[in-house]
Amino acid sequence: MLRILGIDPGSRVTGFGVIDSDGVRSSHVVHGTLRLEGNALPPRLGEIFSRLSEVIETYRPQVMAIEQVFVAKNPQSALKLGQARGAAICAGVSQGLEVAEYTPRTIKQAVVGSGGAEKSQVQHMVRMILNLPKEPVTDAADALAVALSHAHSGITLARIGGNLRR
């Protein structure tokens, strides 16, 4: 069994989700969101780092999977998102985690079956796959989807001893 931490980075809200997976079956451990207050970016980045470090210390994942930056219409938003990703990645790397990155399209394809899926479809499929009592909020659902994407990737199957056939 592999414990995976999925991250949906954001400078205002960062989603996280932890699952256990054998590459075929996955089970929910925990999920949530980090709501970041204040206008100054540096303290929010520090909070992402410290709060994700606490999640890592508490749940002891073996790997972190994170959503790659997409090209936003607003360059300032893209820069802030990139910095939030950096803070999250640093939290994982500082605790010895391997970090895998996935595009939003790849994540949606892995979880919903369509790279152009809507957020509501991702929420619904995450709930169904992990047998959750209700749909998680969007950012947490996206983080769980990132973890599930990693769980079903060929890298994970190979790492846990599965046979990868193409």
UniProtKB/TrEMBL annotation:
Q: What does this protein do?
A: The RuvA-RuvB-RuvC complex processes Holliday junction (HJ) DNA during genetic recombination and DNA repair. Endonuclease that resolves HJ intermediates. Cleaves cruciform DNA by making single-stranded nicks across the HJ at symmetrical positions within the homologous arms, yielding a 5'-phosphate and a 3'-hydroxyl group; requires a central core of homology in the junction. The consensus cleavage sequence is 5'-(A/T)TT(C/G)-3'. Cleavage occurs on the 3'-side of the TT dinucleotide at the point of strand exchange.
Q: Where are the transmembrane segments?
A: none
Q: Where in the cell is it found?
A: Cytoplasm
Q: Looking at the keywords, is Lyase present?
A: no
Protein name as annotated: Crossover junction endodeoxyribonuclease RuvC
Kind of enzyme, top EC level? hydrolase
Which keywords describe this protein according to UniProt? Cytoplasm, DNA damage, DNA recombination, DNA repair, DNA-binding, Endonuclease, Hydrolase, Magnesium, Metal-binding, Nuclease
Q: Give the family this protein belongs to, as stated in its UniProt record.
A: Belongs to the RuvC family.
The catalytic activity of this protein is classed by the Enzyme Commission as 3.1.21.10
- Note accompanying the cofactor annotation: Binds 2 Mg(2+) ion per subunit.
Task: Identify the residues that bind Mg(2+) 1.
Answer: 8, 139
Q: Name the positions where Mg(2+) 2 binds.
A: 67
Q: Which GO terms describe its biological process?
A: DNA recombination; DNA repair
Recorded GO CC terms: cytoplasm; Holliday junction resolvase complex
Q: Which cofactor does it need?
A: Mg(2+)
Per the UniProt record, the source organism is endosymbiont of Tevnia jerichonana
